[in-house]
Protein backbone atom coordinates (compact mmCIF):
# COMPACT_ATOMS: atom_id res chain seq x y z
CA UNK A 1 0.00 0.00 0.00
CA UNK A 2 1.19 3.55 -0.77
CA UNK A 3 2.87 5.01 2.32
CA UNK A 4 0.97 8.31 2.05
CA UNK A 5 -2.32 6.43 1.84
CA UNK A 6 -1.36 4.32 4.85
CA UNK A 7 -0.55 7.46 6.86
CA UNK A 8 -3.84 9.06 5.83
CA UNK A 9 -5.82 6.00 6.92
CA UNK A 10 -4.01 5.95 10.25
CA UNK A 11 -4.87 9.62 10.82
CA UNK A 12 -8.54 8.97 10.03
CA UNK A 13 -8.55 6.09 12.50
CA UNK A 14 -7.02 8.25 15.21
CA UNK A 15 -9.54 11.02 14.63
CA UNK A 16 -12.37 8.51 14.95
CA UNK A 17 -11.23 7.41 18.41
CA UNK A 18 -12.81 8.96 21.51
CA UNK A 19 -10.80 11.31 23.70
CA UNK A 20 -8.14 9.71 25.87
CA UNK A 21 -9.71 8.14 28.94
CA UNK A 22 -13.22 8.15 27.47
CA UNK A 23 -15.42 5.08 27.82
CA UNK A 24 -17.89 4.90 24.90
CA UNK A 25 -21.20 3.27 25.78
CA UNK A 26 -22.18 1.18 22.77
CA UNK A 27 -25.56 -0.59 22.43
CA UNK A 28 -25.54 -3.79 24.47
CA UNK A 29 -22.56 -2.78 26.62
CA UNK A 30 -21.99 -1.46 30.13
CA UNK A 31 -19.34 0.69 31.78
CA UNK A 32 -18.29 -0.67 35.16
CA UNK A 33 -17.46 1.20 38.33
CA UNK A 34 -13.66 1.35 38.70
CA UNK A 35 -14.05 0.34 42.38
CA UNK A 36 -15.14 -3.13 41.34
CA UNK A 37 -12.49 -3.58 38.68
CA UNK A 38 -14.06 -6.62 37.03
CA UNK A 39 -14.81 -5.36 33.52
CA UNK A 40 -13.59 -2.77 31.02
CA UNK A 41 -14.03 -0.10 29.89
CA UNK A 42 -14.29 1.55 33.29
CA UNK A 43 -16.37 4.67 33.42
CA UNK A 44 -14.67 7.94 34.24
CA UNK A 45 -15.11 9.48 37.69
CA UNK A 46 -15.82 13.20 37.91
CA UNK A 47 -17.89 15.48 35.67
CA UNK A 48 -16.77 16.65 32.22
CA UNK A 49 -15.11 20.08 32.24
CA UNK A 50 -17.92 21.66 30.20
CA UNK A 51 -20.59 20.77 32.80
CA UNK A 52 -20.72 24.28 34.29
CA UNK A 53 -23.61 26.73 34.87
CA UNK A 54 -22.69 28.77 31.78
CA UNK A 55 -23.40 25.77 29.53
CA UNK A 56 -26.68 24.69 31.17
CA UNK A 57 -29.43 24.21 28.58
CA UNK A 58 -32.31 23.01 30.74
CA UNK A 59 -33.22 21.35 34.05
CA UNK A 60 -36.06 18.94 34.80
CA UNK A 61 -37.30 17.69 38.18
CA UNK A 62 -39.83 14.97 38.97
CA UNK A 63 -41.12 13.65 42.29
CA UNK A 64 -42.08 9.98 42.47
CA UNK A 65 -44.16 8.19 45.09
CA UNK A 66 -46.00 4.96 45.71
CA UNK A 67 -48.24 5.95 48.65
CA UNK A 68 -49.48 2.43 49.35
CA UNK A 69 -45.91 1.12 49.48
CA UNK A 70 -44.24 4.19 51.02
CA UNK A 71 -41.59 4.54 48.30
CA UNK A 72 -40.75 8.14 47.38
CA UNK A 73 -38.05 10.52 46.20
CA UNK A 74 -37.01 12.99 43.52
CA UNK A 75 -35.28 12.73 40.14
CA UNK A 76 -33.38 15.74 38.79
CA UNK A 77 -31.82 15.82 35.34
CA UNK A 78 -29.86 18.45 33.45
CA UNK A 79 -28.69 18.96 29.87
CA UNK A 80 -25.41 20.82 29.29
CA UNK A 81 -24.03 21.94 25.91
CA UNK A 82 -20.41 21.23 25.00
CA UNK A 83 -19.19 24.17 22.87
CA UNK A 84 -15.73 22.62 22.51
CA UNK A 85 -16.95 19.38 20.88
CA UNK A 86 -15.29 19.56 17.45
CA UNK A 87 -17.35 16.71 15.98
CA UNK A 88 -20.72 18.10 17.13
CA UNK A 89 -20.44 21.67 18.55
CA UNK A 90 -23.08 22.24 21.20
CA UNK A 91 -23.73 18.52 21.72
CA UNK A 92 -25.48 17.64 24.96
CA UNK A 93 -24.31 15.93 28.12
CA UNK A 94 -27.13 14.57 30.29
CA UNK A 95 -26.67 14.49 34.07
CA UNK A 96 -28.92 12.61 36.55
CA UNK A 97 -29.46 12.66 40.31
CA UNK A 98 -31.80 10.35 42.30
CA UNK A 99 -32.93 10.51 45.92
CA UNK A 100 -34.74 8.07 48.19
CA UNK A 101 -36.77 10.06 50.72
CA UNK A 102 -39.12 7.30 51.84
CA UNK A 103 -40.06 8.02 55.50
CA UNK A 104 -37.90 6.19 58.00
CA UNK A 105 -40.90 4.54 59.63
CA UNK A 106 -42.07 2.99 56.35
CA UNK A 107 -39.56 0.17 56.49
CA UNK A 108 -36.40 -0.34 54.47
CA UNK A 109 -36.66 0.75 50.86
CA UNK A 110 -33.45 0.23 48.87
CA UNK A 111 -33.23 1.81 45.45
CA UNK A 112 -31.11 -0.63 43.44
CA UNK A 113 -31.75 0.40 39.83
CA UNK A 114 -33.09 3.23 37.64
CA UNK A 115 -33.83 3.12 33.93
CA UNK A 116 -34.12 6.03 31.48
CA UNK A 117 -36.02 5.55 28.23
CA UNK A 118 -39.45 4.76 26.84
CA UNK A 119 -41.14 3.47 23.69
CA UNK A 120 -39.89 6.48 21.71
CA UNK A 121 -36.36 4.95 22.04
CA UNK A 122 -34.67 8.30 22.82
CA UNK A 123 -31.12 6.87 22.82
CA UNK A 124 -31.43 4.95 19.56
CA UNK A 125 -29.12 6.26 16.85
CA UNK A 126 -27.14 8.58 19.08
CA UNK A 127 -23.52 8.18 20.11
CA UNK A 128 -22.72 8.04 23.82
CA UNK A 129 -19.05 8.92 23.72
CA UNK A 130 -18.40 8.76 27.46
CA UNK A 131 -20.21 8.12 30.74
CA UNK A 132 -19.43 8.34 34.40
CA UNK A 133 -20.32 9.36 37.92
CA UNK A 134 -18.71 11.87 40.26
CA UNK A 135 -18.92 10.01 43.64
CA UNK A 136 -20.70 12.98 45.26
CA UNK A 137 -23.60 11.02 46.78
CA UNK A 138 -24.30 9.22 50.04
CA UNK A 139 -25.38 5.59 49.90
CA UNK A 140 -25.36 2.34 51.88
CA UNK A 141 -23.14 -0.69 51.32
CA UNK A 142 -24.77 -3.34 49.16
CA UNK A 143 -23.73 -6.19 51.44
CA UNK A 144 -21.42 -7.99 49.04
CA UNK A 145 -17.69 -8.53 48.91
CA UNK A 146 -17.06 -5.17 47.23
CA UNK A 147 -18.99 -2.16 48.54
CA UNK A 148 -18.88 1.64 48.46
CA UNK A 149 -20.97 4.47 49.92
CA UNK A 150 -20.46 7.43 47.54
CA UNK A 151 -23.65 6.98 45.47
CA UNK A 152 -21.83 5.77 42.36
CA UNK A 153 -23.62 2.99 40.48
CA UNK A 154 -22.09 -0.45 40.06
CA UNK A 155 -22.42 -0.04 36.29
CA UNK A 156 -24.08 2.04 33.58
CA UNK A 157 -25.74 -0.14 30.95
CA UNK A 158 -27.05 0.62 27.48
CA UNK A 159 -29.54 -2.16 26.72
CA UNK A 160 -30.74 -2.46 23.11
CA UNK A 161 -33.21 -5.29 23.68
CA UNK A 162 -35.32 -4.55 26.76
CA UNK A 163 -36.38 -0.95 26.24
CA UNK A 164 -35.10 0.21 22.87
CA UNK A 165 -31.58 1.14 23.94
CA UNK A 166 -32.68 2.38 27.31
CA UNK A 167 -30.12 3.38 29.94
CA UNK A 168 -29.81 1.56 33.27
CA UNK A 169 -28.02 2.88 36.35
CA UNK A 170 -27.47 -0.21 38.52
CA UNK A 171 -26.29 0.47 42.07
CA UNK A 172 -26.25 -3.07 43.44
CA UNK A 173 -25.47 -6.14 41.32
CA UNK A 174 -25.31 -9.62 42.89
CA UNK A 175 -25.01 -7.85 46.27
CA UNK A 176 -21.85 -5.97 45.25
CA UNK A 177 -21.89 -2.19 45.07
CA UNK A 178 -24.27 0.05 46.98
CA UNK A 179 -27.95 0.99 47.47
CA UNK A 180 -29.89 4.20 47.99
CA UNK A 181 -31.65 3.58 51.30
CA UNK A 182 -34.36 5.72 52.86
CA UNK A 183 -34.68 8.27 54.27
CA UNK A 184 -31.61 10.25 53.26
CA UNK A 185 -29.44 8.46 50.66
CA UNK A 186 -28.88 10.07 47.28
CA UNK A 187 -27.01 9.16 44.14
CA UNK A 188 -23.87 10.72 42.80
CA UNK A 189 -24.21 12.87 39.67
CA UNK A 190 -24.25 10.35 36.81
CA UNK A 191 -23.70 11.56 33.27
CA UNK A 192 -23.80 10.57 29.61
CA UNK A 193 -21.87 12.52 26.98
CA UNK A 194 -23.66 12.38 23.60
CA UNK A 195 -23.66 13.84 20.10
CA UNK A 196 -27.35 14.80 20.40
CA UNK A 197 -28.20 18.47 19.84
CA UNK A 198 -31.73 18.54 21.28
CA UNK A 199 -33.60 17.03 24.22
CA UNK A 200 -36.96 15.59 25.21
CA UNK A 201 -38.73 14.37 28.34
CA UNK A 202 -38.75 10.59 28.69
CA UNK A 203 -39.66 8.05 31.37
CA UNK A 204 -37.46 6.92 34.23
CA UNK A 205 -38.33 3.94 36.44
CA UNK A 206 -36.99 3.76 39.98
CA UNK A 207 -36.71 0.21 41.26
CA UNK A 208 -36.52 -1.42 44.65
CA UNK A 209 -36.18 -5.19 44.45
CA UNK A 210 -39.95 -5.64 44.71
CA UNK A 211 -41.25 -2.16 43.79
CA UNK A 212 -41.13 0.09 40.75
CA UNK A 213 -42.05 3.79 40.68
CA UNK A 214 -42.29 5.99 37.59
CA UNK A 215 -41.04 9.51 36.97
CA UNK A 216 -39.69 11.57 34.07
CA UNK A 217 -36.22 12.78 33.05
CA UNK A 218 -34.31 14.36 30.19
CA UNK A 219 -32.93 12.36 27.24
CA UNK A 220 -31.95 13.03 23.62
CA UNK A 221 -34.74 13.98 21.24
CA UNK A 222 -35.80 11.06 19.07
CA UNK A 223 -33.33 10.39 16.26
CA UNK A 224 -35.09 11.13 12.95
CA UNK A 225 -33.75 10.19 9.52
CA UNK A 226 -35.37 12.23 6.71
CA UNK A 227 -37.48 10.27 4.27
CA UNK A 228 -35.72 9.71 0.92
CA UNK A 229 -38.29 11.81 -0.92
CA UNK A 230 -37.79 14.68 1.52
CA UNK A 231 -34.02 14.52 1.16
CA UNK A 232 -34.30 14.51 -2.64
CA UNK A 233 -36.64 17.54 -2.62
CA UNK A 234 -34.27 19.52 -0.41
CA UNK A 235 -31.29 18.54 -2.59
CA UNK A 236 -33.12 19.71 -5.72
CA UNK A 237 -34.13 22.99 -4.07
CA UNK A 238 -30.54 23.59 -2.96
CA UNK A 239 -29.23 22.85 -6.46
CA UNK A 240 -31.87 25.16 -7.98
CA UNK A 241 -30.90 27.94 -5.59
CA UNK A 242 -27.21 27.60 -6.46
CA UNK A 243 -28.03 27.63 -10.18
CA UNK A 244 -30.11 30.78 -9.90
CA UNK A 245 -27.39 32.51 -7.90
CA UNK A 246 -24.80 31.60 -10.54
CA UNK A 247 -27.00 32.97 -13.35
CA UNK A 248 -27.50 36.24 -11.47
CA UNK A 249 -23.74 36.63 -11.05
CA UNK A 250 -23.17 36.05 -14.77
CA UNK A 251 -25.84 38.57 -15.75
CA UNK A 252 -24.25 41.39 -13.77
Percent of residues in helices comes to 10-25%
Quaternary status of these chains? single chain
Strand proportion: 35-45%
Query: Radius of gyration over alpha carbons?
Result: 22 Å
Q: DSSP helix count? A: 2
Tell me about the largest β-sheet. 6 strands, antiparallel
Taking the alpha carbons of the first and last residues, their distance comes to: 50 Å
Calculate the mean pLDDT score and round it.
82
Structure commentary:
The termini are far apart. This protein folds into two domains: 18-221, no CATH class; 225-252. It has a six-stranded antiparallel β-sheet, with no helix packed on it. A six-stranded mixed β-sheet has the order 2-8-14-5-4-3, with no helix packed on it. Strands 6, 9, 12 and 13 form a four-stranded antiparallel β-sheet that branches. With 252 residues, it is α+β, with helices and mostly antiparallel strands. The chain has two helices and 16 strands. It has helices spanning 3-16, 228-251; strands spanning 29-32, 44-45, 56-66, 71-82, 91-98, 110-111, 113-116, 128-133, 140-141, 155-159, 166-170, 172-173, 176-181, 190-194, 199-208, 211-220.
Amino acid sequence: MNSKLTLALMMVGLLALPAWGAAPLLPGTSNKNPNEGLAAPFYTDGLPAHVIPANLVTTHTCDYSLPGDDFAGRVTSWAYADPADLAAPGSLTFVYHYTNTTPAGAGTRDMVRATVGDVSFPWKGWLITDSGSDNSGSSTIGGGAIDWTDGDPNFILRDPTVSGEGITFQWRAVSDGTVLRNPSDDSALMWLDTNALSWQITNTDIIDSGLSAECTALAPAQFIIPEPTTAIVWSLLAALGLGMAARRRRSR
